[in-house]
Write a structure and sequence with these properties.
By secondary structure, the protein is of the alpha/beta class. Helices cover 28% and strands 20% of the residues. The protein has 13 helices and 21 strands. Strands 10-9-11-12-13 form a 5-stranded parallel sheet, with helices on both faces. Strands 3-2-1-4 form a 4-stranded mixed sheet. Helix 6 packs parallel to helix 9 and helix 9 runs parallel beside helix 11. The radius of gyration is 27 Å and the shape is globular.
Amino acid sequence: MNDLDLSDGILYRENSRPEVYVIYGRAKFWIPNPDVFNAMGFSWSSVRVVPDGSLANISTIPIYYTLLREYSKPEVYVMIGGKKAWIPDPNTFAAMDFSWSSVRVVPDGSLKAIPSKFQIQLIVTFGDSIVWGQGLNQDQKFSSLVASAMENSYNGGSPVATEIYAHSGAKIGYNLTDADKDAEIKFGDTPTFGEVPTTFPTIVQQVESYPANKIDDVDLILLNGGINDVGLDMLLSPNVSLTELAQKTKEMCYDSMKKLLELTIQKFSNPKTLIVVTGYYRIVTPETNLDYLKLLVNAVVPLYIALPADLAIDAYKNKLVDNFGTFEQTANGYILGAVDEADPNGQRVFFAKPTFNDSNAIFAPNTFLFGISTSLQPEDPMSSIRSQQCEQAGDRAPPNCPFVSMGHPNTSGAASYAQAITSVLVKSCFKLLVHVQPYPIVFKAGSRTVTVSLTVSAEDSQTHAPVAGRVIMKEPLAGPGKDVASTNTPFTYKFENAVVKKPDGSIVVYTTGKVSAAGYDGVDIDFGFPSPE
């Protein structure tokens, strides 16, 4: 029987069978007993009785984008291509433009038989102290939190293994200083303790050292890098120019990061292996407590950098706010750019930026970072163990070794990172595919403008269904972009170009565009214009 009403909430049972089913997402869910039926608020008078065999051909897998949760559990899932994907938090749910009223509640145990979108059994970390989890016990590190989330929400309790190659102090490794090279000659490139800062093995070496016979076992890579290549001495400097800092950040967080990602993608070439690159945060903000910062400046900062004797603490705080703000903004922008260029189709490599605000900085009211006590003791649970490891490492440990947890995520900060990672995985399933017709758009020789009738189409990358959005255009050298048209609808537009004089030669810049749609990240529009560089 093929003409059954498969609207959400319809209840059915077959004539000679006691089993009752509820329909959600054009799929049937068995209601196991009368107690469950009553507890879920169903009405027996609403059960439709149909001929035997009528329900046999109804799917048990809901259609795309059906939202589901089990009756006694808070976890919400969205269906993607016959698989369920966990939506880890309300912010992610809202960002995907879902409605809570659309969440369908099914009996406990109903979702167990639906396969998970992400089958994560092995997580590997490469990177610096952030990915290592400086100062945290193993179960508090965000790699462990992600593994736990995967176990409980995707794997049905099956364990997720983690392998930690990241360690404190690691640099990406493409721009080593003479001091780094001397240290490698003196100490070698084998790791000591993860808590003890050391350049080696670099993040490049971490990736290269992963055993070839295990590469295809890796499901998820958590990776970061760049802050140690920029250098804390630069970030803490009262004299560094923000232009110089931004340029150094570009070299390390874009140029070096892009090379690192290309290496990682090439080595871990199995399409199932996903790579999440994590961003950075502002360590010092206007909400950082000045008195505690003074303790830090007097006792610990001199272990990193020599400060002028007459340095005013309030002026220095303002400089640190500027330095770390510049680094956070430029580093995350450049890392995102490296991710986009290393994986332009966005299939395997994703950027996860934790949600930190001013009040989450070091010594701030709701800090997400370890600091020090008034007795100048580190706050993290690994401090005593690390102190012993610093002594055992001898000359390889820097003078600041006992205090290196400062400025690193505490348990709240680690939770923010874990949330960002689990969120980006499910959001990666929701992408816009954008096409321009006609393409390319061509200017006549010597012409500064061209008027074209065109259509910018947008569709969902999973279902290929049309997506309603807006087309934003920005003329060269103009201000903010203008909302000019709807997607999937023909419109006429006057394109412009402009000549920009640069010291090393003139370039031509063109109109740029972007598609914006609720529930999706914006997508830049390619009109086929030449690159200006």
